[in-house]
Design brief:
Length: 354
């Protein structure tokens, strides 16, 4: 049966609402509205949880209205409300959960709490219909993990970062080199004219077995290389900056490619997918695509980064499986997808990691 699901997302710095219609096998995104808070946090060098929560509370009903209008759907036509219930910045998640509860109660419609990471992890199925099981590498400003996606609510974490997420490292490197935020696109642009072999930067954790990752040492190595240049010459040239960006980007790509190879060797899957903002990086995509002969899926950017269509889709699959929540649904700052895996270290500038 075709269902119409309203999705709501507010776990970090994007307020989003989307309408999805169809079945788990054939979903259609009718609208996907996102309002970014980047400008509000720009002066602080990171997401300020209190500002984020207030901004979500102000924007949520507007985004829901916009998503419904763009979809040409009325609230009465919505079959269920899916909302991110964690993991994320608690104030933002609470804003979304409260808005969703209000709508569900007012309309007398079912409420479905969705794990934000499940939304990301199921996106390659939403966009490309790939079958289970597949390996997902989630790389963004707040997340970095390898997941074996076995079913709509069956995920096995094969490894993840023990400190920073790669997007955080890109953002930090941009700040160190005086490039604008968000750092990923700036570093990628600067790297186009750079020599990736000039600076010998570390490839953290490659000497250890398994597919856990670490990016904080790499960040520090870039800081040292910059300071050495400044000490030696009194400043940096455009070429120095480009070479450092290219060398950094190559180190990230080397690490992610090698760890992906290892994860694929153990995973026994039918496809390899990437998601998250960092997956927009062309050098990285190219390297990841080349590590396997399996089908490679990289969803379009608007569905790689935080959005509510992925939440509506995860909600649709849960609803089809007969799982709904009631008014006791809680906002969870931490909510690992794989409850059996050991907790990871570090919490990251964009809030708690699972
Ligand atoms: O998924 P996302 O929009 O938000 C979350 O973190 O959940 O990811 C944002 C991150 C930022 O750190 C940004 O610098 C990074 O993705 N990013 C990139 C590129 N575009 C965005 N990193 C590397 N290369 C890019 N082209
Ligand atoms: Zn996310």
């Amino acid at each position: 049966m075709k269902l119409t699901i309203l999705g709501i997302e507010s776990s970090c710095d994007d307020t989003a609402a989307a309408v999805l219609r169809g079945t788990g096998e054939a979903p259609v995104i009718l609208s996907n509205a996102v309002r970014s808070q980047t400008d509000l946090h720009a002066a602080f060098g990171g997401v300020v949880p209190e500002i984020a929560a207030r901004a979500h509370a102000e924007a949520l009903d507007l985004m829901v209205e916009q998503a419904l209008a763009e979809a040409g759907v009325s609230l009465a036509q919505v079959d269920a409300i899916a909302v991110t219930a964690g993991p994320g910045l608690i104030g933002g998640v609470l804003s979304g959960v409260m808005a969703a509860k209000g709508l569900a109660m007012g309309l007398g419609k079912p409420l479905i709490g969705v794990n934000h990471l499940a939304g990301h992890a199921l996106t390659p199925r939403l966009t490309d219909g790939i079958g289970f099981p597949y390996l997902l590498l989630l790389v963004s400003g707040g997340h970095c993990q390898f997941l074996r996606v076995e079913g709509p609510d069956r995920f096995v974490r094969l490894g993840g970062t023990i400190d920073d997420a790669p997007g955080e490292a890109f953002d930090k490197v941009a700040r160190l080199l005086g490039l604008p935020q968000p750092g990923g696109p700036s570093v990628e642009r600067a790297a186009l004219d750079g020599d990736a072999t000039r600076f010998k930067l570390p490839r953290p954790l490659l000497d250890r077995p398994g597919c856990d990752l670490s990016f904080s040492g790499l960040k520090t190595a870039v800081l040292r290389a910059r300071d050495d240049l400044v000490a030696a010459k009194g400043g940096m040239t455009e070429q120095d900056r480009a070479d450092l960006c290219a060398s950094f980007q190559m180190a990230v790509a080397d690490v992610l490619a090698e760890k992906s190879r290892r994860a694929l060797a153990d995973a026994d899957v039918t496809a390899f997918a990437v998601a998250g903002g960092v997956a927009a990086n062309k050098t990285l995509r190219g390297r990841l695509e080349s590590v396997t002969d399996l089908p490679f899926v990289a969803p379009p950017l608007a569905l790689c980064t935080d959005n509510a269509a992925m939440i509506a889709y995860a909600g649709l699959l849960a609803f089809e499986a007969g799982r709904t929540d009631d008014m006791t649904l809680k906002a969870r700052p931490r909510w690992p997808l794989d409850e059996t895996a050991a907790p990871m270290i570090g919490s990251g500038k964009k809030g708690a990691k699972a």
